[in-house]
Design goal:
heterodimer; A: about 110 residues; mainly beta; five-stranded mixed β-sheet; B: about 110 residues; seven-stranded mixed β-sheet; four-stranded antiparallel β-sheet; about 0% helix; globular
Chain lengths: ~110, ~110
């Protein structure tokens, strides 16, 4: 699986959009980009995933660059409950998800 | 309610005393896995199973065993626990290739003295 690079931490004001970047420059054609988050020692939670098109669901939006070498997770209106570690993972087929260290997002009132 | 359950949630034990952490899912998922999480190291996969009687090593399998005799259960066995296995453990399950369906359990916090 391709590796990902994420900033170790970010802050975001409550009510503002949180934009979390991820670099995955060695991603291959059949690999998806997955985002999970983990709220304070709870089990990780799936957020969103995509292949090459931008995706949106009730939790977030995922913007993938045209060359697929990077992506951005957008939480449109961050709340205090969005404070968590966010993991960007690239994976394909039956290969297991490999969690890196993620980005610790702190939403500040 | 779709869920992954783990037991026990908290465990304190001593070096060398065999223990089993159970994991059960009610979603008929084929794929199950175990992770450990340590400060500064993120989540690391211990073992995974693609289906009944099919298991394989993850990134950090040393000192652990697993079995998959039934689809819903995937116990993690520590035959002779050591202090370096003190960690937070998560079980997860999903439909095989559909990682977006992956559910994680609530975690088991293990302390080995």
């Amino acid at each position: 699986d391709a590796k990902t690079t994420q900033p170790p931490s970010m802050d975001c004001a409550e009510g503002r959009a949180a934009n979390l970047p991820c670099n995955h420059s060695t991603i291959s054609g059949n690999e998806y980009v997955y985002w999970y988050r983990q709220i304070h020692s709870q089990g990780p939670q799936y957020i969103i995933h995509g292949l090459k098109n931008n995706e949106t669901n009730e939790m977030a939006s995922l913007i993938i660059t045209e060359d697929r070498k990077s992506s951005t997770l957008i939480l449109p209106h961050a709340t205090l409950r969005d404070t968590a570690v966010y993991y960007c993972i690239v994976s394909s087929g039956n290969t297991p998800l490999v969690f890196g260290k993620g980005t610790r997002l702190s939403v500040i009132a | 309610e779709a869920q992954v359950t783990q037991n026990p949630r908290y465990l304190i034990t001593v070096t060398g005393k065999k223990l089993t952490v159970t994991c059960s899912q009610n979603m008929n998922h084929e794929y199950m896995s175990w992770y450990r999480q340590d400060p500064g190291l993120g989540l690391r996969q211990i073992y995974y199973s693609m289906n009944v009687e099919v298991t394989d090593k993850g990134d950090v399998p040393e000192g652990y065993k697993v079995s998959r005799k039934e689809k819903r259960n995937f116990p993690l066995i520590l035959e002779s626990p050591s202090p370096n296995q003190t960690s937070l453990y998560f079980c997860a399950s999903s439909f095989n290739e559909r990682k977006e369906t992956q559910y994680f359990g609530p975690g088991t916090r293990l302390l080995v003295l």
